[in-house]
């Protein structure tokens, strides 16, 4: 058994365009992720970040190469493995207001994934919603609110509660916190660090800029035009060699200061 929870080997994605051209959105991507760690994926708009995670989420077929999760080739899973996989990897959306049904109460929003998988026992809804609200540091009575009765940061917490209710191993954040202001980002980052420790979660963060992900991640990969141009240890961003990475890093003014202490217990 591999020591990696995620192993991506020589992965490529090509989109045929209407004019007959081929767009190579991801080219020969190789990534390994250890369980319980966080990987940041940064790069400019159109560099292939979302395409990469959509293949991982099985929302998009792979053109070539392979993705192994927990040692299983995700392109060749039987029905039962597929069902387990869909529970095991969850996405946290950028704008929970758009992702939530405005007429659903928080308790129904949180319990919906359980319901969809046939795992919700009658009469347990309030207990479960309350427990998961507590895990994301919201009061239990928030379960009776509607999405518009909460702040953006509170909605983000509900989105996280919903994402962990199936007790997945992997959470994927595609620009999930970029819409929040910096102080709220910081408190969400602390919450995510706490949950990661408690549940040994593996995180994938997609972002345009390195500033946020470096506080959260152990490793950061830099994508440019579908390729990984550099893989960085988040504690040693100053070691970046590629000119493209240095340009991205120049957006952080505090470069050179020690790594933010939020990511706990990195060996
Ligand atoms: N379904 C599709 N059909 C054709 N081209 C696509 C499709 N999805 C994505 N692309 C193209 O693939 C490239 C990579 O897109 P992708 O969404 O992965 O970028 P990104 O790094 O997530 O960008 P952003 O930071 O703006 O979200 C882009 O050129 C995009 O136009
Ligand atoms: Mg994207």
Topology (SSEs and partners):
Layout: E1 4-16, E2 22-34, E3 38-42, H1 49-56, E4 64-69, E5 72-73, H2 79-88, E6 89-92, H3 96-99, H4 106-116, H5 125-135, H6 152-164, E7 170-174, H7 182-199, E8 202-207, H8 210-216, E9 219-224, E10 227-233, H9 243-249
Parallel strand pairs: 3-8, 3-9, 6-7, 7-8
Antiparallel strand pairs: 1-2, 1-4, 4-5, 9-10
Helix pairs in contact: 4-5, 4-6, 5-6
Plain-language structure description:
- The chain is built from nine helices and ten strands.
- The chain has 267 residues and is an alpha/beta fold.
- Helix 4 packs across helix 5, helix 4 packs parallel to helix 6 and helix 5 crosses helix 6.
- It has a single domain, classed as Rossmann fold (3-Layer(aba) Sandwich).
- 36% of the residues are buried.
- Helices cover 33% and strands 25% of the residues.
- The protein is globular, with a radius of gyration of 19 Å.
- A six-stranded mixed β-sheet has the order 6-7-8-3-9-10, sandwiched between helices.
- Strand 7, helix 7 and strand 8 form a beta-alpha-beta unit.
- The site of magnesium ion has 3 residues, from helix 1.
């Amino acid at each position: 058994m591999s020591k990696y929870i995620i192993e991506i080997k020589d992965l490529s994605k090509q989109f045929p365009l209407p004019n007959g051209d081929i767009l190579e959105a991801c080219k020969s991507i190789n990534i390994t992720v250890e369980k319980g760690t966080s990987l940041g994926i940064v790069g400019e708009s159109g560099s292939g970040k979302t395409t990469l995670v959509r293949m991982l989420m099985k929302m998009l077929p792979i053109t070539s190469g392979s993705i192994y999760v927990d040692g299983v080739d995700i392109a060749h899973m039987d029905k039962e493995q597929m069902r387990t996989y869909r529970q095991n990897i969850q996405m946290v959306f950028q704008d929970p207001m758009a992702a939530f049904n405005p007429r659903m109460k928080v308790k129904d929003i949180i319990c919906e994934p359980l319901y969809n998988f046939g795992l919700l026992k009658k009469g347990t809804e309030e207990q479960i919603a309350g427990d998961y609200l507590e895990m994301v540091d919201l009061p239990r009575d928030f379960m009776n609110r509607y999405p518009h009765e909460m702040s953006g940061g509170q909605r983000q917490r509900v989105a996280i509660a919903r994402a962990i209710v199936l007790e997945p191993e992997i959470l994927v954040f595609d620009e999930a916190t970029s819409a929040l202001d910096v102080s709220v980002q910081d408190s969400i980052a602390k919450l995510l660090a706490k949950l990661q420790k408690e549940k040994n979660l593996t995180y994938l963060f997609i972002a345009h800029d390195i500033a946020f992900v470096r506080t959260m991640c152990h490793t950061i990969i830099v994508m440019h035009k579908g390729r990984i141009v550099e893989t960085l240890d988040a504690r040693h961003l100053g070691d970046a060699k590629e000119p493209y990475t240095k340009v991205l890093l120049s957006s952080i003014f505090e470069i050179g200061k020690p790594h933010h202490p939020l990511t706990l217990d990195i060996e």
